[in-house]
Design brief:
Strand content: under 5%
CATH class: Mainly Alpha
Order of helices and strands: EHHEHHH
CATH architecture: Up-down Bundle
Number of domains: 1
Strand order of the largest sheet: 1-2
Radius of gyration: 15 Å
CATH topology: Four Helix Bundle (Hemerythrin (Met), subunit A)
CATH superfamily: Nucleotidyltransferases  domain 2
Number of helices: 5
Structural class: mainly alpha
Shape: globular
Helix content: 55-70%
Length: about 140
């Protein structure tokens, strides 16, 4: 972890990119063959929101756990506990590093999470970055 000057523009650019990527991912046909790609993309979009929060505070890190924890620690109403994002992180790690093959049901689960909660989290993250507000 390294402290830097907060970069609001970079943080906003990152969340807008996450939004675009999520919109694309939600249009993909869910199948066993596409499951790994869908899960990686959904994970990456949430991770980017967490990274944006850190960049907005002037923290640079390559630690995905820290980025995901930024989202988990948001004070926001969601349809499911945000701790599911840590499960998503672990699943994506297994896909990338242990050749795990996700299935259609796992992809559906995280698409459901994205459809129900990504937009609200995106709005909250954008508000925090634009106003330099705290997480409450």
């Amino acid at each position: 972890m390294r402290e830097k000057i907060p970069d609001k523009n970079k943080a906003l650019s990152l969340i807008l990119s996450a939004e675009k990527d999520m919109l694309y991912t939600l249009r993909l046909e869910i199948s066993d063959e596409a499951a790994n790609t869908i899960i990686r993309n959904v994970y990456e979009c949430f991770r980017m929101l967490g990274e944006a929060l850190l960049i907005g505070r002037g923290i640079e890190t390559s630690d995905h756990i820290m980025m995901i924890n930024e989202i988990i620690n948001l004070k926001i109403e969601t349809s499911r506990s945000l701790f599911i994002l840590d499960n998503l992180r672990r699943l994506r790690h297994n896909i990338n590093y242990y050749a795990y093959r996700a299935n259609k049901e796992e992809a559906k689960n995280f698409i459901s999470l994205a459809k129900s909660d990504f937009s609200n989290i995106f709005i909250k993250v954008k508000e925090i970055i634009e106003t330099n507000k705290s997480y409450s």
